[in-house]
Structures are given as structure tokens and as C-alpha cells.
Amino acid sequence: MPTSLPPAPSGYYARHIFFCLNERKNGEDSCSQHNAQAGFDHCKMRVKQEDLSGQGKVRVNKAGCLDRCAGGPVVVVYPEAVWYSFVDMEDIDEIIDSHLKNGQVVERLLLPPDVGR
Ligand code: FES
């Protein structure tokens, strides 16, 4: 059963999602090696397609390393500060449909609290 959140407080954006797109050149693992760009592009496309982007709605942003690399690829959604790890575009769709649109946390994709770098 998904956790229900109160409506997002009014701010410039109702919700803001950040995708780590960090790429390490030294051979160390990073989100970019795990489909992060594809997830970002898919999210941008869907949010635009459904007219969810803009003031009072949703903003999708790139981020550098969020220092939770071991769970990568990772995203974080504000203002709730909910962290997710995703595998494919269906996971992104679920984050959009459930959390970004309706404030319902997608429990199955939550990044465990102790996952760090
Ligand atoms: S490389 Fe993505 S969180 Fe560090």
C-alpha cells in the first residue's frame, strides 16, 4: 500500500525531481553507466507531453553526483525529499503517475536509507 502524502506546499514548483547523471571517467561506477540519461530523457518527455511542467507544476532537472551512488541510478523528489532507485522506463512512469502527479510514494522503488556512495 503506497504511502500517501499531504499536498505539496505551494512554491514555484509543486514538485522537483533531480536525476543524477554523473559520469566518472576514472572507471568507477556511476549513475550514467546505469541508464540514468535514458531515465531523465523519458521523464522530461512525459512531463512535457502531459503538460505537467512549469510554475506550480513539475520541474525535471539534471544533477551531478548526489553521493548515493551505490543505489544508482538515483533520483530525489522534493519537497518530500523522497529518494528512488530505478531500473527501467516503467519505473519512471510509476514515479510520474504516482508521486509527481498524486503525491503517492512508490514504496517498491524507495532507496534504502543506508545506501550511500
Ligand atoms: S554517481 Fe549518481 S549518486 Fe553518485
Question: If you had to describe this structure to a student in words, what would you say it looks like?
Answer:
The protein has helices at residues 36-49, 89-102; strands at 15-20, 58-63, 74-78, 82-85. It is α+β, with helices and mostly antiparallel strands and 117 residues long. It has one domain (15-109): Glutaredoxin, CATH 3.40.30. It has a 4-stranded mixed β-sheet, covered by helices on one side. Helix 1 crosses helix 2. The chain is globular, with a radius of gyration of 14 Å. The mean pLDDT is 92. Bound molecules: FE2/S2 (inorganic) cluster.
User: What oligomeric state is this?
Assistant: single chain
SSE sequence, one letter per element: EHEEEH
Spatial order of the strands forming the largest sheet: 2-1-3-4
Largest sheet: 4 strands, mixed
Beta-strand segment tally: 4
> What is the distance, rounded to the nearest whole angstrom, between the alpha carbons of the first and last residues?
29 Å
CATH architecture grouping: 3-Layer(aba) Sandwich
Overall average residue pLDDT: 92
Rg, Cα atoms, Å? 14 Å
What is the 3D form?
A: globular
Give the C-level CATH assignment: Alpha Beta
Question: What's the CATH topology name?
Answer: Glutaredoxin
In helices, the fraction of residues equals: 10-25%
The name of the CATH superfamily reads: Glutaredoxin
Q: How many domains? A: 1
The unreliable regions are: none
InterPro entries: Thioredoxin-like_sf
Pfam families: 2Fe-2S_thioredx
Protein name: (2Fe-2S) ferredoxin domain-containing protein
